Amino acid sequence: MKGDRVEIVIDAGGTPRNYEVVATKAGRRVEVTTGRGIVEVSEVTRNGTPVRTARFMSSRILALVEHPKDQVKE
User: What is the pTM of this model?
Assistant: First the structure.
């Protein structure tokens, strides 16, 4: 959903760095996957095709916060 976003805070050698991946267009969403010490945050289309991807070492991540778009049903 447009508006989905994930904030990632990593330890960059003593100072924390903030990164943000946002679903920029309607129909896109943000997915988080983990495996083998890597956390991957991707903005994907409705078909599941990745548009943008960010990869982080899981040992360096201090915080990972998902902010889903509020889904209001009428």
Answer: 0.82
Half-sphere exposure of 44 (CA within 13 A, CB side): 12
Tokens of 54: 């960010």
Q: In this structure, is the dihedral angle defined by the CA atoms of residues 18, 30, 26 and 71, taken in order, positive or negative?
A: negative
Q: How many CB atoms lie within 10 A of CB 38?
A: 12
Helix or strand (DSSP H, E) at 64: strand 61-67
| CA–CA distance, 32 with 43 (Å, rounded to integer) | 9
Which of 39, 69, 67 lies closest to 55, judged by CA? 39
Pull the structure tokens for residue 50.
């990745």
Give me the average pLDDT of each 10-residue run along the chain (74 residues): 85 92 89 94 92 94 88 53
